Amino acid sequence: MCCDCSARLRNGRQEVPRSRSFDQPDNMNNPRPGDHLDWRSQIIDSDALHLDDYVRATYSISVPAGADTRRSAVQMLRILTVRSQRDLPVGQQLDPSKFGAVIHIGTSAPWSEVTLAIPVSSVEPTEGLSHLLQMLTSVVEYNYADGAWLQRVDLPQRYLRHVPGPQLGTPGLRNLLSIPTRPLLALQVGPRYQSLSALTGLYLEALLAGVDMLVDDILLGDPPGELSLANRVPVLTNLCERASHSSGKKKIYATCLTGSSNQMLSKAHWGASQGVGGFIVNSFTHGLGTLEDLSRAGLEKCLFATNMGSGMVSRPATPTSAVSDRRVGIDEQVISKLSRLAGADAVHTGTTGAECFDVSWGDANRTLAQPIITAGTNIPPSFCVAEGDLQMINVWPNMRELGTDTIFEVRSAILGTGSPVRDKAKRFIDLLDRLTTVGDDREAMQVYRRLAQIDEDLQRDLDETDLNDW
Prior knowledge:
34% of the residues lie in helices and 17% in strands. It has helices spanning 69-81, 96-99, 128-137, 157-160, 169-177, 196-209, 229-247, 261-273, 288-295, 332-342, 362-369, 395-402, 412-415, 421-435, 441-452, 456-464, and strands at residues 9-10, 13-14, 54-62, 101-105, 112-119, 147-154, 184-189, 213-216, 252-256, 278-282, 302-306, 328-330, 346-348, 372-374, 377-379, 383-386, 406-410. Helix 6 packs parallel to helix 7 (229-247).
């Protein structure tokens, strides 16, 4: 049983807390732990702290009716660092350097922004990013707030000095592929029902026409038979080598990894020896620790990070959401930032207009692109990844949101029915090249209309798209 939980059990049954003011005990003859908590002493101005000794976590929280947001914020902090709401032994002070502080409390709305300064001693860098994430998310296990959304995390220099970071990053991958400015184009391999042998010719045709890389569908895994890792890796790395030789441009294949952490690391070493150029890892299901291990393994390969599946437990509300306003979860910018620090060279942040859950991804993109300087060195920026059933009509809305340092992973846009694969791939590359230099929707539309003159499918998409909501 977690710390302080036993106090919420009475006669073997768990008490259900009532909405109330936290300044008033439920029952004066049977007070709850923390009813007389001296919470004001732990609200401290940030100027009073040496911030390089603290991890700063900003949450958006909703508290029960009549409750005090300030008190709830202190309770969240104390359960993380003191591990109890009970008073400390007589004579022991709540030293911020040991137990942290609440350094910001926003205006109470139904949702209020609060920032906790957590001592680095509670989340030592050597314990890894997985431990950090566990610490920051564990506050939702308690009833100090009706909702808690982990909005952002700011790490001190003394922590950043220990993270692996991307081994290639955006500059390294661009240099490897000799593509200085435009977005990269990747063709997805899979899904499982497809025959590998039936598609190898089309994959090669797409690579020769300009596609930069082959990447596994995230759910391809390592099934038995033709699509097993052992079978598909030699075939697909050979295709990339042939295309590189024929086109004079480097092509790479990135495969997804499955299994336990040890199995994934073993598969990565084997894949690297076979010429694999990158690996796809799920930060949510596989864990940030696995990503850190792969980054530190000396493979010198591109690491793609996705958090597919995290929406089941963490999904932001939108103005049109038909769901309760009680929410718990982690903002995409937190996962993106931690994935970059763990070693991801490219991160799936979100996709616009491709049947995916769609919100603004600006903060997540910023955490991948902004410089992080530590100990006199830079942690390289990472690519954004846009994937799903993307079509040419979706490219500009995503470039507008994600920027040019984006990898577009597509499938049906190139392998679908209609024009030959070579023609589709060339037109997609042409579109990426032209959109790289445009500055607004008007210029982008001019590019689309010119290309639509020779592309009936694109013209049809333009005719069927509400350009006022593009």
